[in-house]
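Consider this one:
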Amino acid sequence: MSLTEEFIHYHAGGKIFTGVLVRDSRNAPLPGVLLAPNMMGVASSSIEHARTIAKKGYVVLVADLYGCLPDSTEDAANRMNSIKDSPAERLILNAALARLAQLQCVNEDKLAAVGFCYGGHCVLELARSGAPLAVTACFHGTLDTRTPAEKGDIRGKVAVLNGADDPFVSAEQIKAFVGEMASCGCDFQLTNYAGAVHSFTYPKADVPGKTHYNAAVSNHAFSVVFTLLKEALG
């Protein structure tokens, strides 16, 4: 399948953001998937994840979270920490989703969001904000929040794909998240993959005990999400 990539601009908080849209050549409106990347932003690894999803028949927008591309890991971490759990985080994600929904190639009634690492946290915050998402999928993201969802806030299904040995996701986080989802009446599932740590979907992740690629876990997690997307969006 031939895929195209193009820059897509949107505004939030007085800043211009530039994401990358990945889709095939079909003219008919297709379901849209917002992809929130890891803290490195709109990098090649996130675009490759978008290509994997787009091949299943979705229009995928890799969201720009900062209004720029970080020039180092330290720069990315600083930018991430400056917006994480702030009102700006939800503002930026909602602006990206709205831009995706406006595109002629997207069916605005069929939207989902997937996120990886920091992006996993982002899409959960997007869902908590009441965004019109049929599916929200968090790959190895943190689960904590300063503004827990209340009943009726989350409008679709939520899937969390978590490494059971992820040092950034504590048992306390998981307990609080499960309690939050249950109390707000959300249709959710949480899968803990034994032996997996953070960043298990990234082939270049290789920090023992912290971040490491796990092909079998990655493939299974993607298959779970693809099933949910197909059921909810077609």
Notes: Strands lie at 4-12, 15-23, 30-36, 59-62, 106-116, 135-139, 157-163, 188-193, 206-207, 211-212.
